[in-house]
Specification:
Strand content of chain B: 25-35%
Shape of chain B: globular
Radius of gyration of chain A: 29 Å
Largest sheet of chain A: 4 strands, mixed
Largest interface: A-C, 121 and 124 residues
Number of helices of chain A: 14
Number of strands of chain B: 10
Strand order of the largest sheet of chain B: 6-7-8-3-9-10
Radius of gyration of chain B: 18 Å
Largest sheet of chain B: 6 strands, mixed
Low-confidence stretches of chain A: none
Structural class of chain A: alpha/beta
Number of strands of chain A: 5
Distance between the termini of chain B: 36 Å
Order of helices and strands of chain B: EEEHEEHEHHHEHEEEHH
Number of helices of chain B: 8
Mean pLDDT of chain B: 88
Chains: A alpha/beta (372), B alpha/beta (249), C alpha/beta (368)
Order of helices and strands of chain A: HHEHEHEHEHEHHHHHHHH
Oligomer: heterotrimer
Shape of chain A: elongated
Mean pLDDT of chain A: 88
């Protein structure tokens, strides 16, 4: 026990003496958490619309103003030929082309039907799909208006209309910040914990001080605990700072059980730190440790359910997600912060993360050799 | 002075790395209280041998005991009875002199009072009073080495292993260092020193010379000089190492 | 010049000897592009939903069948009371609930108007919006069929053509994005760390006091990594074409030329970081922690830049990955030539030049 006290003293002294690292650990997450959520917004708006109007009739103009009035689309400009418009799509200055055929108004009134031609840049499939859907909705609405205007009331039975009444639970204003802030905090926490612990033991290996440690009668698990605890404390500090930032800057205050959230984070940190330590027992240089950690971090972060949903992934990817600690943390954060969940709801997640923590740390201790 | 009680015993101790045999069936004994010089050119296998004796590296074959404990199965007990100063400086450069002393002392189980007494004593002996609160990284090399040595014997171990302790140090500091080594030996500590400075061999009670992983000579400096009819240890070494494949010749 | 060649050779030896790191540097981008190319998608599929049908009439059953048939949804249950629903939402078991009121078809037939309640878990606003929209489009299709049966006059039929990615797959968006992200991070890390490493171990000083110009010393470090990164580009593009089925519609040569430019930009950034930092740890934390999330967020492949507040849009302009993402998309997915991307190319050149000048200046200051 005393040994651990000495180890902790040493680690803390080293951490606090290293101004640059301390700044990075504490200040960088705060800055990122403050700025990044502002960038996160999947909402479909600002779709740049290029119009090729061969008709120039009141009908075509009405259609265009209806489309731009919706708020989803921004009128980029009018063009005389589709080719000019296509070039704009190539240059990313337009997302969508609406081509209104010549004689649109006249033919619609005379023949009772007309087509409109739409081309959408579908590289972002989701955006294209939704954009197309919105456009179709607006056109259909416009169609209805035309019908009403042209037909005398009893000549047709109005189209049956099914109204979709959306109700948004937990986040009625569909505020993306509520969604992103806890998620980004989760990612930042993971990075701090993972990178720091991965570098730590390897650094001692590279510098040579680890030999001096290995030659003492110090116990393996004491040594590893001595490495875990300081960063565990730092992690909790970063998390608390993050919560403060969420509250002060974004006005997000957890709706659920804060103790449950901290409880989960405490265990989560153990798992992430354990993972970092494990990597550092397998590598000889900080460079290697860093690249390996980078690889795992990328996978954890991009597949953690924050940017894209996990259910949409193919089966094998979902299986990987079961092993991805970040996905658990992101979910727990959302559940507690937005849905007001408590201990009961996060119990399964807690169990899984606890399992990770035990396995990873035991593995790290087992793999650490005082004798080569 | 020295008694004939072996504190280190090796029998055909060998370490292989793949096809490369770093240490080839070395057999020798080191007695309590003596200063044993483990000489050889760079790359001859000295550090490998030392690391096996310290419990840092597992031998491939052969037998060895240190302070009565087996190097295969009882490494943790060995570590309780030894001190070590590695070739690469391995105190914490970002901790102060005092903090390093207290840390390693604490790890070896010294209680608070012992720590206080010993660290004060050590700092006084080394004349580091004005440097005690300075970061070790800011000290000049000679002082670092002396500090590392002192830390390695802080817990009064039975045996201390010193790997090239005077590498890169000026002659005055080297003399001071050996004075410290003698002082430790007079307290009953056995010192196992590797070096490639042949003149330091004269300071040891007994020496062995490793060439290409094997021990080619074992005995007192005077004895070896007589046997090989050489006036100096340099000459002794040159004779033995002339045909060496590994080393800096 | 000969001296330069000597230095480059030495650096190559360094890189080639560290087998483990080499393996990671070459294998990692391949693994990443495969994983992300297949796994990442903006679509929402297999969403667990609950449908509560109080009407149980033809209309509701017809709609429910269509919903069940689509791959967007996985109907978990068809009976649930309010409390049950609330618990399920809280636990994250369901993302959406559809509730048909008791007289659904009746209302539709006699009043031409019926309501369908769609309750979504908006803690994930993206999924909520998308799923609600999916429901809406299924409803719309159903309505269109009803309309056709009613033979309404004055039909306007939009014909929608999806360009570049007719199947609306995720890969055409994510492959260029991940490519930009991975190349940027790896290139920056490689140079930042290797140069700082020499600083830390002291071997840098030796080089600096040699008669060779220090600028050459540093540049020579970047050269092997340039080659490595180009190998990475090749492997990523090959994976993308043959495994992910995302072909290169445009010129391969142009793609590689632009990639070379981008890599040089990133290597220069790495050099800049290495000049400004003293230890490997700090260099790593800056290039990893400092750059990972911002690059993901500001490169434009995750979130549309046009949606961001203006000052963030400016910030995104200095993220080289943003420009490269546009370039790769244009060449690979749209098949555009240099005329279409000259603006982005010039910007990348400008960023590189800027970084180079600043690095040189900082370096000279260090030396004094």
């Amino acid at each position: 026990m005393r040994t651990i006290r000495f180890l902790l003293q040493k680690e803390f002294r080293q951490i606090f003496r290293n101004r640059a690292i301390l700044m990075l650990i504490l200040v960088m997450p705060v800055i990122q958490l403050t700025i990044l959520p502002l960038a996160a917004d999947y909402e479909i708006k600002n779709i740049n619309l290029s119009v090729v109007d061969h008709d120039h009739s009141p009908y075509s103009r009405q259609l265009i103003s209806k489309i731009t009035a919706s708020g989803y689309f921004k009128l980029q400009g009018y063009h005389t030929s589709p080719n000019a418009a296509y070039r704009l799509i190539e240059q990313d200055r337009a997302d969508l082309i609406l081509e209104i055929p010549p004689g649109f108004e006249r033919n619609l009134v005379r023949d009772g039907e007309q087509s409109l031609f739409v081309a959408i840049n579908a590289i972002n499939g989701m955006k294209a799909g939704l954009g197309g859907a919105y456009l179709a909705d607006i056109i259909s609405d416009y169609n209805h208006d035309i019908r009403v205007a042209l037909s005398h009331p009893p000549r047709f039975s109005a189209a049956p209309f099914i109204e979709v009444v959306p109700k948004n639970r937990f986040n009625p204003m569909l505020n993306y910040r509520f969604f992103m802030v806890p998620g980004i905090l989760a990612i930042l926490l993971t990075m701090v914990g993972g990178f720091l612990s991965a570098l730590n033991i390897v650094k001692e290996k590279e510098v040579g001080t680890i030999e001096q440690i290995n030659v003492t009668p110090i116990k393996k698990h004491h040594f590893i605990l001595g490495k875990l605890i300081p960063f565990w404390i730092l992690g909790n500090i970063v998390f608390t700072l993050g919560l403060l930032v969420s509250w002060v800057i974004y006005g997000i205050f957890p709706a659920g059980n804060i103790a449950a959230m901290y409880g989960f984070v405490c265990v989560y940190l153990l798992a992430v730190l354990g993972f970092g330590l494990l990597i550092s027992t397998y590598t000889d240089t900080q460079q290697q440790a860093m690249f390996i950690m980078f690889f795992f971090m990328m996978v954890f972060i991009l597949m953690g359910g924050l940017f894209t949903s996990i259910e949409s992934m193919p089966g094998w990817a979902r299986a990987i997600s079961a092993l991805n600690p970040v996905s658990y943390l992101v979910e727990v954060m959302r559940m507690v912060v937005l849905k007001g969940s408590g201990w009961a709801a996060i119990l399964p997640h807690l169990g899984a993360i606890f399992g990770f923590a035990v396995i990873l740390n035991s593995w790290a201790i087992w793999n650490y050799r005082k004798t080569a | 002075m020295t008694s004939l009680e072996p504190v280190i015993k090796t029998e055909k101790l060998t370490k292989r790395f793949g096809d490369f045999i770093a240490t080839n069936e070395i057999t020798f004994e080191v007695y309590k209280g003596e200063i044993f010089g483990f000489l050889g050119a760079n790359g001859a296998g000295k550090t490998t041998a030392m690391r096996m004796l310290c419990g840092l590296s597992r031998p491939t074959s052969g037998k060895a005991t240190v302070a009565g404990f087996d190097v295969y199965r009882q490494t943790e007990q060995i570590k309780r009875h030894i001190g070590y100063m590695s070739q690469k400086f391995s105190l914490y450069e970002d901790l102060t002199v005092l903090e390093n002393i207290r840390f390693f002392g604490g790890i070896y189980g010294l209680n608070n009072q012992q720590l206080r007494v010993k660290s004060d004593g050590l700092i006084e002996r080394l004349g580091l009073q004005s440097e005690a609160k300075k970061l070790v990284g800011d000290l000049p090399l000679g002082w670092k080495q002396k500090l590392a040595f002192s830390v390695s014997i802080l817990h009064e171990p039975d045996i201390v292993f010193l790997d090239e302790p005077t590498g890169g140090v000026d002659p005055v500091t080297r003399r001071q260092f050996w004075a410290m080594i003698y002082e430790a030996a007079s307290r009953g500590i056995t010192l196992f020193v590797t070096t490639h400075y042949m003149d330091e061999a004269e300071y040891c009670h007994r020496i062995s010379i490793m060439v290409d992983g094997r021990i080619e000579a074992l005995g007192t400096p005077a004895g070896l000089k007589t046997k090989l009819k050489e006036p100096s240890m340099d000459g002794v070494f040159y004779q033995l190492a002339r045909g060496a494949k590994r080393g800096d010749s | 010049m000969n001296q330069f060649a000597i230095f480059i050779k030495k650096e190559f030896f360094h890189v080639l000897r560290d087998r483990r790191t080499l393996l990671i540097l070459v294998g990692m981008p391949i693994a990443q592009i495969l994983i992300f190319g297949f796994a990442l998608t903006n679509e929402v599929k297999n969403a667990r939903i609950v449908v509560v049908d109080h009407a149980k009439d033809n209309a509701s059953r017809s709609i429910i069948n269509r919903i069940a048939a689509s791959n967007y949804f996985e109907i978990q249950a068809d009976v649930m009371d309010r409390d049950g629903m609330e618990t399920a939402f809280r636990a994250g078991d369901i993302k959406l609930a559809l509730v048909f009121p008791p007289s659904f078809e009746d209302n539709l037939a006699h009043q031409n108007h019926a309501q369908l309640q769609v309750i979504a878990d908006a803690s994930d606003p993206n999924s909520a919006t998308t799923l609600t929209n999916y429901v809406s489009s299924i409803i719309r299709d159903y309505q269109t069929e009803l309309n056709e049966q009613a033979a309404l006059p004055y039909q306007i039929a939009p014909q929608i053509r999806m360009l570049y990615n007719p199947l609306l797959k995720g890969a055409p968006n994510f492959v260029p994005g991940v490519m930009a992200l991975v190349l940027m991070l790896v290139s920056v890390m490689m140079t930042a760390i290797s140069i700082v490493r020499e600083k830390e171990t002291g071997t840098m000083e030796v080089l600096l006091v040699s008669p060779f110009k220090p600028a050459w010393v540093i540049l020579s470090k970047a050269v092997p990594y340039l080659l490595l990164s180009l190998i990475n580009v090749l492997s990523i593009v090959l994976m993308s074409v043959f495994v992910l089925q995302v072909p290169v519609k445009g010129s391969w040569l142009l793609l590689f030329a632009e990639s070379t430019l981008f890599i040089i930009t990133c290597l220069t950034l790495g050099i800049f970081i290495s000049i400004k930092t003293k230890t490997q740890q700090v260099a790593m934390l800056v290039s990893l922690m400092g750059m990972l999330l911002p690059t993901v967020m500001f490169s434009g492949f995750m979130f549309p830049i046009a949606n961001m507040p203006v000052f963030l849009q400016w910030i995104s302009n200095i993220v080289p990955a943003k420009w490269f993402y546009i370039i790769v998309k244009s060449i690979m997915i749209k098949g555009v030539g240099i005329e279409g991307i000259w603006k982005e190319t010039v910007i990348l050149c400008g960023i590189t030049l800027l970084l180079f000048i600043v690095s040189l200046k900082s370096f000279k200051i260090r030396l004094q």
